[in-house]
Design brief:
The structure holds two protein chains of two kinds.
Chain A lengths: L1 E9 L2 E4 L2 E5 L7 H8 L12 H14 L12 E7 L4 H13 L5 H4 L6 H10 L5 E5 L5 H9 L8 E9 L4 E9 L8 H5 L3
Parallel strand pairs in A: 4-5, 4-6
Antiparallel strand pairs in A: 1-2, 1-7, 2-3, 6-7
Helix pairs in contact in A: 2-5
Chain B lengths: L4 E8 L6 H9 L5 E4 L9 E4 L8 H16 L2 H4 L4 E6 L16 H9 L6 E3 L5 H14 L5 E8 L3 H9 L20 E2 L1 E8 L9 E10 L12 H14 L8 E3 L6 H13 L6 E3 L2 H4 L6 H15 L1 E2 L15 E2 L4 E2 L4 E8 L3 E9 L5
Parallel strand pairs in B: 3-7, 4-5, 4-6, 10-11, 10-15, 11-13
Antiparallel strand pairs in B: 1-8, 1-9, 2-3, 6-8, 9-16, 12-14, 15-16
Helix pairs in contact in B: 2-4, 5-10
Classes of the chains: A alpha/beta, B alpha/beta.
């Protein structure tokens, strides 16, 4: 399997294919908004998304600066994501709403499923491909490669894979654009530079 | 012959505490949906489908009951094999103990309970989780990584989810009426079922063949389906292509049929686009409620019941059809020899999934 592009996001910087494409040199805690504005991509829905979806969407859009997604068919790219904490960042908002604030917000509740970030990507990119979300204890690329490989087929040889976490301790994402390739082994060395 | 056989492992539901009692309840058109008082966010009454016998630690009590039945139905040499893996489909896991991670104890629990050799894989993909997990299981077998895959589907009724759906106005104020012109929402339900996919028949129970499945995103909206049912349409097209059958071969459709205005309308549009309007079809949500992560597993098991008994179950809740395109909704239980069965699911995040089963004949 070939890595066509790789993106790492955290509160300090965004790196795509070994280049720093965004550096958080502001003291603003809303660094994701600034990273979005830097994209020059007009998509007001971004501001309504939860943290998990914002991270995923930033990853795809920054990768798009290195990859021409328009050359792919609309169902040629599978979307497979994983994390350990599911939709924690939205779960805690919803939970706090009804246990402490005596209210329920549907805008918060809709994000209390980890796969919603896949929906946001699909809507933004108009991608109709296969989608799946795994809850896994750690970032184990061997495990993820085994699952991703199962979704490659004649009509879809590509996959956007992401490990996205947003909780009280950290916000980070690693997103890979992968191509099925039986002749090349997955470049673990390259990935390890990002971990 | 590279067949993938599929058989039920366990079935703990609001209408039956095992496979055969759930099947009998379906034959008698019994529903587990009951009015529960003061469970809404402002103490409103809501119709919900709950399993009475689990009281404390409900998620793991339910999972435990399902494991007990599975151990009676699945030989231990298969459960304990290195060529066996378990998948778990759940939207919220043990959400009643939030903010503790709702998923982290599931794997260790199953390893210990079933004496598994491989770590379970957890899939959380909203209401399509169950169908997606069965499809994933089949892929694991086709790739020769495993000989047997046991797929659990489980979700429990919780304040977390109930209050959330209530805020979306997705809960009906009465018993759900899938496809009916007066439908106005879902009833939440809970269940834990397991289904077994294998390269061989594993016991004397009824087996069918799994022919194929797929998923496709609507690319339209995160909490409502595409009006034209684009994702469901594409998924079904892919599934029948993988299964190498024609649309006309399908004998019965087990729809998602949640009872919301939008879902049921979308499904009628998708099925109409596919020329499936004249196929016998039902929703099972009137029996069990919407069991979320368990739905795909539970409702596929009910497909097996129908195939085994040559009996299609009444689509509970329908009085007058109220969707734009015609559907041949099953009005009462009736006998039918069915060969090819299509199961569909749709969910938040715009996901859609489908799978195709076939009855065994003498050559299989």
């Amino acid at each position: 399997m070939k890595i066509k592009a790789i993106c790492k996001i955290d509160s300090n910087e965004i790196i795509v294919n070994e280049q720093v494409v965004y550096y958080n040199n502001s003291s603003s805690t809303d660094w994701k908004k600034i990273a979005y504005q830097q994209l020059n991509f007009d998509y007001p829905k971004f501001h309504k998304m939860d943290n998990l979806s914002k991270l995923a969407v930033l990853g795809v859009k920054y990768i798009e600066q290195a990859v021409d997604f328009s050359s792919f068919k609309d169902d040629e790219i599978n979307m497979i994501f994983a994390n350990k904490n599911s939709s924690y960042c939205s779960d805690i908002k919803h939970y706090t709403n009804y246990t402490k604030n005596n209210l329920v917000s549907p805008a918060d509740f809709v994000y209390t499923l980890p796969n919603i970030l896949i929906g946001e990507i699909a809507i933004m990119q108009k991608w109709y491909g296969e989608n799946n979300f795994f809850i896994h204890d750690n970032f184990d690329m061997n495990f993820f490669l085994n699952q991703i490989n199962l979704y490659f087929c004649e009509n879809s040889k590509y996959c956007i894979f992401g490990w996205i976490e947003s909780n009280e301790e950290e916000e980070k994402a690693i997103i890979l654009f992968l191509e099925q390739d039986n002749k090349s082994n997955f470049d673990f060395n390259r990935l390890n530079n990002y971990l | 012959m590279n067949n993938i056989y599929i058989t039920s492992g366990s079935c703990i539901t609001p209408i039956g505490n095992n496979i055969s009692s759930t099947k009998n309840a379906l034959k008698n058109n019994l529903s587990g949906i009951k009015l529960h008082q003061e469970i809404g966010f402002n103490s409103e009454d809501f119709y919900v489908s709950k399993i009475d016998k689990i009281t404390d630690n409900r998620f793991f009590s339910l999972l435990n009951l399902s494991c007990i039945e599975l151990k009676n139905n699945c030989p231990s040499n298969i459960l304990n094999s290195e060529k066996t893996i378990v998948l778990v489909s759940s939207t919220k896991g043990d959400i009643n103990n939030f903010p503790t991670n709702p998923f982290e104890k599931i794997g260790p629990f199953l390893i210990k309970n079933l004496k598994l050799k491989n770590d379970p894989i957890i899939i959380s993909n909203a209401c399509i989780s169950g169908v997606v997990a069965i499809n994933h299981a089949a892929k694991l077998i086709k790739s020769n990584q495993f000989d047997h895959v046991i797929v659990f589907g489980i979700d429990i009724v919780s304040d977390f989810v109930l209050y959330g759906f209530q805020s979306l106005f997705a809960l009906s104020n009465e018993i759900t009426k899938p496809f009916d012109k007066n439908r106005n929402g879902i009833n939440l339900g809970e269940a834990c079922c397991s289904i077994i996919l294998s390269k061989e028949k594993i016991n004397q129970k009824y087996h069918a063949l799994y022919l194929g499945g797929s998923s496709s995103n609507d690319a339209n909206h995160i909490s409502g389906p595409s009006r034209t049912g684009e994702g469901l349409y594409r998924s079904i097209i892919k599934t029948i292509s993988i299964a190498k059958i024609n649309i006309s071969d399908i004998d019965y459709i087990s729809a998602h049929g949640t009872g919301t205005i939008y879902n049921d309308e979308m499904e009628s549009n998708a099925f109409d686009r596919l020329q499936l309007s004249d196929k016998d079809i039902n929703s099972l949500k009137g029996y069990f409620g919407h069991t979320l992560g368990a739905a795909g597993i539970l409702e596929t098991i009910v497909c097996l019941f129908s195939m085994e008994e040559k009996l299609l179950f009444k689509s509970l809740g329908l009085e007058n059809i109220g969707v734009s395109k015609p559907l041949k909704i099953i009005p009462n239980n009736f006998s039918k020899d069915i060969n090819y069965v299509l199961k569909t699911a749709s969910g938040f995040g715009g996901g859609n999934a489908s799978l195709l089963l076939k009855t065994l004949n003498n050559e299989n």
